[in-house]
Amino acid sequence: MPIRLGSLAPDFTAHSTKGDIKFHEYLGDNWGILFSHPADFTPVCTTELGLVAALHDEFEARKVKVIGLSANGLSEHDQWIKDINEINNVKLDFPIIADGDRNVSTLYDMLDNQDPTNVDNDGIPYTVRSVFVIDPTKTVRLIMTYPASTGRNFDEILRVVDSLQLGDQHRITTPGNWKRGDDVIVHPDLSTAEAQRVFKDVRVIKPYLRLTSSPF
């Protein structure tokens, strides 16, 4: 079955740089981000992993547990992490799944079907740059897929987490280019009268477009 928004995130057990992981157990009651990398010791992946390590406090503040995946073995991961830390001046402390057998990559449909050069020595495809944001109920809330050649924008991923968490806590949605602290949109299923009771300020632009200050 394909994984879609609203799907239960498939559970799995895998080897990682932090020991064997049972995915749902690892996430616990937290939000989670599972993201894949084509291969170890590649330039874009090395910079991406360093960026995620540098954002440790941002993820922790949002109660998000991060877990990476690359289609290589643990010994390669361990050596690669040393490079990541040195090059980016960070201390990478989240687990990276060793998915040389592509079991998790196949389960989450991460394998590259586009780039004929993104394969291992046996011609088996590596992964693309997939991102899955998963909420505490283990429901998939965001799916993003980048080609192997394009590094991701983790500021955007954090922005989406902020929007999702805020929308779960309050009856609001967020407009295009919204960022933390900006005005938000009153949810369409809330009447204006009810919105005026719920929020301290409601600005009616159109009957279907009502703005209020960010609850952040």
Write the layout of secondary structure elements.
Blueprint: E1 13-14, E2 21-22, H1 23-27, E3 31-37, H2 43-54, H3 56-61, E4 64-70, H4 74-88, E5 96-98, H5 103-107, E6 129-134, E7 140-146, H6 154-169, E8 172-173, E9 184-186, H7 192-198, E10 203-206, E11 209-212
Parallel strand pairs: 3-4, 4-5
Antiparallel strand pairs: 1-2, 3-6, 6-7, 8-9, 9-11, 10-11
Helix pairs in contact: 2-4
Given the helix and strand composition, which structural class is it? alpha+beta
Overall pLDDT level: 94
**Succession of helices and strands:** EEHEHHEHEHEEHEEHEE
Stretches with pLDDT under 50, minimum 5 residues: none
Name the assembly state. single chain
Number of helices: 7
Shape field: elongated
Q: Helix share of residues?
A: 25-40%
Cross-sheet strand order for the largest sheet? 5-4-3-6-7
- Tell me the distance between the termini: 37 Å
- Strand segment count: 11
Rg result: 19 Å
For the sheet with most strands, the description reads: 5 strands, mixed
Strand content: 15-25%
